[in-house]
């Protein structure tokens, strides 16, 4: 019971910090999430509401990474397993810490990304940009790579670009 209460408190603090970060212009800020032990950064201006895992209705003939649709606060959202879409999926069951991160409503796409866990907020001051070592072309939604004080690498994902990516929008496989 204490774990659930601590998790609710963390979510409440995150929601408050998200709202404060959106209204302040202090440089770039991100929501840090983890998927299959990899760190990803969602720009705060593009990330929307965070939800606990909700019942998902599967969609026939869709890709395995498209889990289906869920009713989130009275609106239907497509639910995408982010690790599955990116091709970094480890065989892990859903955890109590798994969350759905919706796209900001301004992006006009009713979609939520399934992530393994939330890792808080990050700002430019907390991260150091890394040299791009990619040898080939990258999808347009893949942004810069950063390293934090602990040496953890974080990959930025541009949700606005992801929302218009042809492969992301093609859920039928």
Task: Describe the protein in words.
The chain is an alpha+beta fold. It has a single domain, classed as OB fold (Dihydrolipoamide Acetyltransferase, E2P), CATH 2.40.50.180. Helices cover 20% and strands 38% of the residues. The protein contains four helices and eleven strands. The protein has helices at 2-23, 82-86, 159-162, 166-169; strands spanning 29-35, 38-43, 47-52, 66-72, 75-81, 99-103, 111-115, 117-123, 127-129, 142-148, 153-157. The strands form two sheets. The protein has a six-stranded mixed β-sheet with strand order 8-1-2-11-10-9. Strands 3-6-7-5-4 form a five-stranded mixed β-sheet. β1 and β2 (38-43) form a beta hairpin. The radius of gyration is 16 Å and the shape is globular. The model has no long low-confidence stretch (mean pLDDT 89).
Listing every helix as H and every strand as E from the N terminus to the C terminus, the arrangement reads HEEEEEHEEEEEEHH
Q: What is the count of β-strands?
A: 11
Number of helices: 4
Q: How far apart are the first and last residues' alpha carbons, in Å?
A: 41 Å
- Residue stretches low in confidence (pLDDT < 50, at least 5 long) are none
What would you call the shape? globular
Widest sheet: strand ordering = 8-1-2-11-10-9
The CATH H-level superfamily is: CheA-289, Domain 4
Largest sheet: 6 strands, mixed
Portion in helices: 10-25%
> Overall pLDDT, averaged?
89
Overall number of structural domains: 1
CATH class assignment:
Mainly Beta
